[in-house]
């Protein structure tokens, strides 16, 4: 079980770092809400450790070491690590899922760009759909159809984030929009990054991303009937809050360069109330044929890992060790090259 002091730390971190999730989590039953707070606190730690430092490669490598200690059952002496280690043990969390998150952070540290929308999906699978799959595991659900729809929700949320943050990312030198969209529009990505403007072409890209997110929100909602009744209000709330951000982008004519779409506290409270009403309107929600849609190819490995209730060799599986080691090795090489370059520069200066 999560130590009370560690749980309090996690809740405080989420309350200040992710208001949308904290608001939605209030509708979850305690048996799910507490481990979910621990999960999101660790995810927040992962995200901030990379985003808020210039030493991104070193930060990801350090997170890899921390995750290894967690799965050994000897977490680092820090509240978020201890709390997440308790979650891993209690729920036999498949190792593939948090490793996917770490791999996505590594891609960020490598400043990877994505030639097509499939690449954006693959990135979203790691940094968001993996979290959706972990949340589903916390609810005691291993149904592959429910997991596929949870991954749809995660990808939709990340597409919404990308659409909302185009300007902010560009000013930081980051680009998540598919490169082939720029080619089709006759735009140079480097020119856009050097002078980001809400041109008609860029607005159309944002609109296209929002439309794709909305399609996935629709698919995701079909999976809510497979969740415990007590968990549905929280998941409806998450779906409506993020879809609300997408709607705000539409109201701004898809300009996410000069402004950042956000929702108000009043709106969030309205969505929380609507979610509770919708989820409680009947003890059984009718199944939709959309439930049985195949998972996105980019998230299929997450669904397979989370649905496997008897992973090989250990209670928590072995994860995708080879893939993660390869990415971390690339990061380590980059970090070594960076240090060598700094040392050479220092010698020349002296």
Automatic annotation (TrEMBL):
Pfam families for this protein: SQS_PSY
Keyword Transferase: yes
UniProt keyword list: Transferase
Gene3D superfamilies: Farnesyl Diphosphate Synthase (1.10.600.10)
PROSITE patterns membership: SQUALEN_PHYTOEN_SYN_1 (PS01044), SQUALEN_PHYTOEN_SYN_2 (PS01045)
UniProt-recorded name of the protein: Phytoene synthase
Native organism: Rhodovulum iodosum
């Amino acid at each position: 079980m999560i130590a009370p002091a560690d749980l309090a730390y996690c809740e405080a971190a989420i309350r200040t770092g992710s208001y949308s999730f904290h608001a939605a989590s209030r509708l979850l039953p305690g048996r799910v809400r507490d481990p979910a707070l621990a999960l999101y606190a660790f995810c927040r730690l992962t995200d901030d450790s990379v985003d808020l430092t210039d030493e991104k490669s070193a930060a990801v490598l350090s997170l890899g070491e921390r995750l290894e200690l967690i799965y050994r059952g000897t977490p680092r002496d820090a509240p978020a690590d201890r709390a997440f280690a308790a979650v891993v043990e209690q729920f036999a969390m498949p190792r593939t899922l948090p490793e996917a998150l770490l791999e996505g952070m590594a891609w960020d540290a490598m400043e990877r760009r994505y030639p097509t929308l499939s690449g954006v999906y693959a990135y979203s699978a790691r940094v968001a759909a993996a979290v959706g799959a972990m949340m589903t595991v916390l609810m005691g659900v291993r149904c592959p159809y429910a997991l596929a729809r949870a991954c749809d929700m995660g990808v939709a949320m990340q597409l919404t984030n990308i659409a909302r943050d185009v300007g902010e990312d560009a000013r930081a030198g980051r680009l998540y929009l598919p490169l082939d969209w720029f080619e089709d529009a006759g735009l140079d990505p480097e020119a856009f990054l050097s002078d980001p403007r809400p041109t008609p072409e860029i607005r159309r890209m944002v609109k296209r991303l929002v439309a794709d997110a909305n399609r996935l929100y629709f698919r995701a909602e079909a999976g809510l009937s497979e969740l415990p009744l007590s968990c549905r209000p929280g998941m409806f709330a998450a779906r409506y809050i993020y879809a609300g951000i997408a709607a705000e982008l539409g109201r701004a004519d898809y300009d996410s360069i000069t402004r950042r779409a956000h929702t108000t506290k009043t709106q969030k409270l309205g969505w929380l109330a609507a979610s509770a009403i919708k989820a409680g309107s009947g003890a059984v929600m009718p199944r939709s044929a959309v439930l049985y849609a195949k998972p996105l190819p980019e998230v299929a490995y997450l669904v397979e890992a989370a649905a496997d209730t008897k992973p090989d060799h250990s209670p928590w599986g072995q994860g995708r060790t080879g893939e993660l080691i390869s990415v971390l090795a690339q990061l380590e090489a980059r970090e070594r090259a960076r240090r060598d370059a700094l040392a050479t520069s220092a010698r020349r200066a002296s």
